[in-house]
Every structure is written in C-alpha cells, then in structure tokens.
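Q: what sequence does this backbone want?
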C-alpha cells in the first residue's frame, strides 16, 4: 500500500476529503487507492484525496515547476486528486482544508500569524487564517485565488439529461475549467431570461450536464440563482449548485464559487458576493486582477486503515 496507515477526514463547507501528510514523499497514492479511500460505501468516503507534501515529491511536476513553486515560497504542496483517481489542477475548498490540516500539524501559524503559501498545480495560493468569522464559521481562511480568465458571456449551451430546457453558460478559467449558468434571478434584472431549465433547487445533478460546444478538458458546471443585489454597497447574494468533473455533485466547490462570482460580475458589475451552497456560506470578492475566497474548514476525524 502506498498510503499511510493513518489518514484524516476533513471538509470545506461540505466538500469533503480524505487527507494525509507526507513530509518525506513516500506515500504517492495510486488511482485504485484513491478510488477505494473515497468510496462512500467501501472506503472512508470523500469528494477527493488531499496529500500534503513538498513540491519536489510530486511526480507529475517538472523540475521547472518545482523550482518556480519553491522560488515563490511554497514549502508545502496540495497534491489533490478527484474521487475517480484523476489529477486536478486546483480545489478552492481543498486549499482551506489543507491549510487547517497544516495548522493542526504545526506547519502553518495560528490566526493572526503569517499566511501559508501553498503550492498547487494552478500555482501558489496564499491563505490567511482568520479564525472565527460570524456568518462564515469557526476556522475561516481567506484565499487569494489569483488571476481569472473568462470567455464571452453566455457563449455555451448547457443541458441536463432527462431535464427539459437549457441555459446559457459562461466559461471561466480558475486554474481549472468551469461553465456557469444563471437559472433564476430574483432581482428582476433579466439575468436568467434565456434559461428554460428547472430552478436550481429542482435539478438532478447526479446526471452530468452537457456543455455545447464541448470542452476537451471537460468542466465543472455551476447553476446559479441570484437572490439580491445592493447597488449602494456594491454587494450581492446568490445560491449555487455544482457538478464537478470526476466527482459528480458536491456540496461546495471553491473554484466554482469563484467562477460564479466572476460570471455575476461580468453580468452585473458587482464584484462582492455572498454565495450559499448546500454546505454553507462563503464570500467571494472579484476585481480585474484576482479573486479572494473566504470560508470555513473542518477536520472531523482520524482514521486508522486496517
């Protein structure tokens, strides 16, 4: 077995992970081991696997990538794999769970201390520990998610098998690919006038959405209801659900939350969003240069594998 005997279970607003530390680089998991650990009936159960290690111990990184990460101050790396065993470029909720794990292990300062510069396949992400934040949680971290890229608004058509109707989606690159569709708009601004899919609460996201034109990379697909916009304060509130590539529906998706806020900023001009997902509530702030994601994380258990 190429995984340690002791693993941990953690989550970021319900997006859950099997986790372990590998400071010596001796526990690189196989795809079969990942699928076993993340199986909710026969394993520990999770949306993915988080291995906390040093960049030089991540087999798929080139020498140049390792050098760039280390030069940027990333002593630690979040080696994230989807539940089906595939590699993932980035996981926003996973970075918060990883940061809390690193904090508990003494690899990151307590709230008020120095931020953690965490290596990922999408570059270095800087995480600041905020501690308890009313409305967001007890172990809250703010992540500078870095730069974003977005395509033309509503350039994709999104359907769901066995659902009537469709919606227009916007492509957003957050280090991993997303297509975001607004299905409902309670503000009366016409943000969902082209959507004929059922409401966000009524979707069956166990079925993988179909995106046209097809993206070779596949994508996460987000479905959004806009609940309120306060023009005076430049803020908005929304609700989101997501189907993640390689996983299915998850209770939360950090990069998906960021992609949603980017899309809503393109449509409304508002860049400060409080977004609720089935696993909790987070805040996302978008400007021209980057995205900040703020939300809770938890470590819920320690598991001895037999």
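A:
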């Amino acid at each position: 077995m190429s995984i340690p005997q002791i693993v941990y279970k953690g989550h970021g607003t319900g997006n859950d992970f099997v986790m372990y530390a590998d400071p010596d680089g001796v526990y690189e998991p196989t795809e079969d081991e990942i699928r076993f650990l993340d199986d909710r009936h026969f394993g520990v159960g999770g949306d993915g696997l988080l291995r906390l290690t040093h960049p030089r111990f991540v087999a798929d990184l080139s020498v140049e990538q390792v050098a760039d990460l280390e030069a940027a101050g990333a002593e630690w790396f979040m080696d994230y794999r989807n539940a089906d065993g595939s590699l993932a470029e980035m996981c926003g909720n996973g970075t918060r769970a990883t940061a809390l794990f690193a904090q508990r292990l003494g690899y990151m300062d307590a709230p008020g201390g120095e931020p953690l510069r965490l290596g990922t396949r999408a570059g270095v992400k800087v995480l600041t520990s905020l501690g308890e934040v009313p409305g967001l949680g007890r172990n809250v971290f703010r992540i500078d998610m870095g730069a974003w890229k977005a395509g033309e608004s509503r350039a994709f058509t999104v359907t769901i098998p066995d659902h009537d109707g469709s919606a227009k989606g916007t492509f957003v690159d957050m280090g991993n690919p997303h297509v975001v569709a607004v299905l409902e708009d309670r503000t009366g601004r016409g943000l969902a006038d082209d959507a004929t899919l059922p409401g966000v609460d009524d979707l069956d996201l166990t079925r993988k959405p179909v995106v046209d034109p097809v993206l070779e990379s596949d994508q996460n697909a987000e479905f959004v209801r806009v609940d309120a916009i306060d023009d005076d304060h430049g803020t908005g509130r929304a609700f989101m659900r997501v189907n993640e590539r390689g996983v299915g529906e998850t209770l939360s998706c950090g990069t998906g939350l960021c992609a949603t806020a980017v899309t809503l900023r393109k449509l409304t001009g508002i860049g400060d969003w409080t977004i609720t997902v089935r696993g909790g509530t987070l805040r996302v702030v978008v400007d021209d240069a980057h995205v900040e994601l703020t939300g809770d994380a938890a470590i819920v258990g320690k598991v001895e594998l037999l």
